[in-house]
Amino acid sequence: MYQCEITSREAGQRLDRYLYKLLPNAGTGFIHKMLRKKNITLNDRKAAGGEILVLGDQVKVFFAANTLQKFMGQVKENRSVERETYVSEQTYARYGELPILYENEDILLADKPAGLLTQKAKQDDFSLNDWLTGYLLSKGELTKETLSGYKPSACSRLDRNTSGIVLCAKSVRGAQLLSSLLQDRTLHKYYRLYVKGHVTKAQELEGYLVKDEARNKVTVQTVFEEKQNASYIKTRLWPIKQEADKTLLEVELVTGKPHQIRAHLASIGHPLLGDYKYGDRAWNDRYRKTCQVKSQLLHACRVEFPQLESPFAAISEKVFESEVPPVFARVSDMF
């Protein structure tokens, strides 16, 4: 028999979804059959699978040891968890105590440095997700055993060379909150950046983003064409300071699509400083040589939460800010 008690990290999800992760080799039909036959119980009672797990719930699985090991994929799972734990601990050791702007039992707002991926692109990459797991392991909030039930992760994503605030979930409840706020666009995200030329007034930009998978590049169109796989985008911008050859902007990302800010600003003739994919190479080279600007100067500087009720009343209508990196000061008023 296998028995576990639901912690705050797993609470909030359906029982059957928890079981799919616990028994990845069992199959959904088999799991529901075992629920009907009471070979899997919730709090010592028969369960249908749709029950929402709460803190302290007891889940029992009455399988023979070899059957349980088979359905849990235990040998493979143990190796996977061992590797994940090792990589996470190494990532945490490498990057240390990243600034944390807010943390409770469900969510964490991390201040990501430029150069660190949010999610892995390949197996050997270091990522903020790995750092998050390593951080929670170091605090004792996670163990190797609990990693198989729920894995904390980033719910928002920044490009490798974009710095600033990343929204992370430490629990199912936290993931559900952040995902819903991002989906209904009630959580507002703002960025600071330098663009080429002078922007003199606030603007609201709309368009359609078309991705070229082969080149990992997007283009912006003002008219939607059904034959293309285009995504609607909206970007708001406000000029903060005009300088000799550039403007410091604050931008609100209303829709969150990959490369949206970079492509949208470039499409109106104001590419980001340091952006070699969508920008002006000669202009970028000048700042690379004089100010060591090696990638796009883009920083996620602020998030604003909407009104929220318990259990998230503590962050209701709260604003969290991250200071821009020192490179912003180096390029200010140059040329």
Relative strand content: 25-35%
CATH architecture of the largest domain: 2-Layer Sandwich
| Cα Rg | 23 Å
Question: How much helicity do the residues have?
Answer: 25-40%
The main sheet comes to: 11 strands, mixed
> Averaging pLDDT over every residue, what do you get?
91
Q: How would you name the CATH homologous superfamily of the largest domain?
A: Pseudouridine synthase
Oligomer: single chain
- In the residues, how many domains can be counted? 3
Question: How does the overall form come out from the CA principal axes?
Answer: elongated
The strand count comes to 15
Ends distance: 71 Å
Secondary structural class: alpha+beta
Total helices: the number is 9
CATH class call of the largest domain: Alpha Beta
CATH topology-level name of the largest domain: Pseudouridine synthase
Structure description:
The chain is α+β, with helices and mostly antiparallel strands. The chain has three domains: 2-72, RNA-binding S4 domain (Structural Genomics Hypothetical 15.5 Kd Protein In mrcA-pckA Intergenic Region, Chain A, Roll); 96-184, 2-Layer Sandwich (Pseudouridine synthase); 188-331, Pseudouridine synthase. 29% of the residues lie in helices and 26% in strands. It has helices at residues 15-22, 28-36, 65-72, 74-95, 128-139, 172-184, 260-267, 281-291, 327-331; strands at residues 2-5, 40-42, 45-46, 58-61, 100-103, 107-112, 153-154, 163-169, 188-196, 203-212, 217-221, 230-242, 246-253, 298-304, 319-321. The strands form two sheets. Strands 5, 6, 7, 8, 9, 10, 11, 12, 13, 14 and 15 form an eleven-stranded mixed β-sheet that branches. Helix 4 (74-95) crosses helix 5.
